[in-house]
UniProtKB/TrEMBL annotation:
Name of one Pfam family that matches: p450
UniProt keyword annotation of Cell membrane present: no
Protein name in the entry: Cytochrome P450, family 2, subfamily Y, polypeptide 3
Similarity section: Belongs to the cytochrome P450 family.
Coiled coil: none
Cellular component aspect of the GO annotation: endoplasmic reticulum membrane
Reported cofactor(s): heme
InterPro entries referenced in this protein's UniProt entry, alphabetically: Cyt_P450, Cyt_P450_E_grp-I, Cyt_P450_sf, Cytochrome_P450_fam2
Entry annotated with the keyword Metal-binding: yes
Species of the source: Amphiprion percula (Orange clownfish)
C-alpha cells in the first residue's frame, strides 16, 4: 500500500487518530499526522514505504516511464545510475559550482538589462536554473533569447506556478478517464509536454549520431553507453523510453524546484533587509518586490 503524507488538520487527528484514510474519488489516500506517525513510517519502516503511489497526471505525461513514476527494480536501477552519473558530472562538487557561477553572471547581466525598472524574476530565474540542468543533461547551455529554448521553458516556468493549473491537474489525478474527455487546460499542458518530449528526442538523436563511448559529454551520453552495453539483457531498464522520460524528469523537476527556492529566498531577503549583504542587492530586491 502506498501512503501519501500531508500536513493535515490536527483537530481531525484528535478525533480519528494519527492515521486517517480519505477517499479522493475512487482513490484511497492515507494521511499521517504528527512526528511520531511520520517517523515510524518513513524512518523506522522506511523499506516498507519506498514505493510511490500512482499519479495519473505524471503517468500520462511520462507514458509510465522514467524515474519519477517508477517503483521497484526500475526505480532502483535508474536512481542509482542517475545519482552516480550526475555526481560524476559535478553535482555537489566544485565543477557544478563553476557552472552555477558562470550562469549567475548571465543572470546578473540580464537583470542589469532591465535598467532598474520593476520586473518579475520568475522568467530569469527559471532560465538560469534550467541552464544548469541543461549543462549536465544536454551538455550545453542556451541563450535566454533562444526561441526553441523559450518555447520549451515558458510552459514549465509559468504554468506550474499558475493556480489555474493545479485544479485541473488534481482533478485529473482523481478522475483521469473523465478528464481525458472534458475540455480544460490539462490538454494544453500535455501538448506542451509533448513538445518538450520531441525536443528531448531530437537531442538524444544528435547525441547518438556523435557518441564517443570513451569520452561521455553528459548524462545522455552515459545513458546511451549503458543502453548499448545492456541491449541484450531482457530485464534491463536502460532503454530508449526510460531515457526520454528520465531526461524530462530531470529537466522539469530541476528547473521548477530550483527556481522556486531562489524566489523564496529573495522574498525572505526583502522581508528581512538587515541580512542583505550590500545596498545594491537591496535596491535590486526592492525592484522585484514592487513588480
Amino acid at each position: 500500500m502506498h501512503v501519501c503524507c500531508f500536513v493535515f488538520d490536527l483537530q481531525l487527528s484528535e478525533t480519528y487518530g494519527p492515521v486517517m484514510t480519505v477517499y479522493l474519488g475512487p482513490q484511497r489516500a492515507v494521511f499521517l499526522v504528527g512526528y511520531e506517525a511520520v517517523k515510524e513510517a518513513l524512518v523506522d519502516r522506511a523499506e516498507d514505504f519506498t514505493g510511490r503511489g500512482p499519479v495519473p497526471f505524471l503517468i500520462r505525461a511520462t507514458k509510465g516511464y522514467g524515474l519519477v513514476v517508477s517503483n521497484g527494480e526500475r526505480w532502483r536501477q535508474l536512481r542509482r545510475f542517475t545519482l552516480t552519473t550526475l555526481r560524476d558530472f559535478g553535482m555537489g562538487r566544485k565543477g557544478m559550482e563553476e557552472w552555477i557561477q558562470e550562469e549567475s553572471q548571465h543572470l546578473v547581466n540580464r537583470i542589469n538589462s532591465t535598467n532598474a525598472t520593476p520586473f518579475d524574476p520568475t522568467f530569469f530565474l527559471s532560465c538560469s536554473a534550467s541552464n544548469v540542468i541543461c549543462c549536465m543533461v544536454f551538455g550545453q547551455r542556451f541563450s535566454y533569447d533562444d526561441k526553441d529554448f523559450l518555447d520549451l521553458l515558458l510552459p514549465v516556468c509559468f504554468e506550474t506556478h499558475d493556480s489555474h493549473f493545479y485544479f485541473p491537474s488534481q482533478l485529473y489525478n482523481i478522475f483521469p478517464r473523465l478528464m481525458e474527455w472534458l475540455p480544460g487546460r490539462q490538454h494544453k499542458v500535455f501538448a506542451n509536454i509533448e513538445k518538450l518530449r520531441q525536443f528531448t528526442m531530437t537531442k538524444i538523436q544528435e547525441h547518438q549520431d556523435t557518441l564517443d563511448i570513451s569520452s561521455p559529454r553528459d548524462y545522455i551520453d552515459c545513458f546511451l553507453t549503458r543502453l548499448n552495453q545492456e541491449k541484450d539483457i531482457p530485464t534491463t531498464e536502460f532503454h530508449y523510453d526510460n531515457l526520454v522520460s528520465t531526461v524530462l524528469n530531470l529537466y522539469q523537476a530541476g528547473t521548477e524546484s530550483s527556481s522556486s527556492t531562489i524566489r523564496y529566498a529573495l522574498n525572505l531577503l526583502i522581508k528581512y533587509p538587515k541580512i542583505q549583504g550590500r545596498q545594491a542587492t537591496g535596491n535590486l530586491l526592492e525592484q522585484i518586490w514592487h513588480s
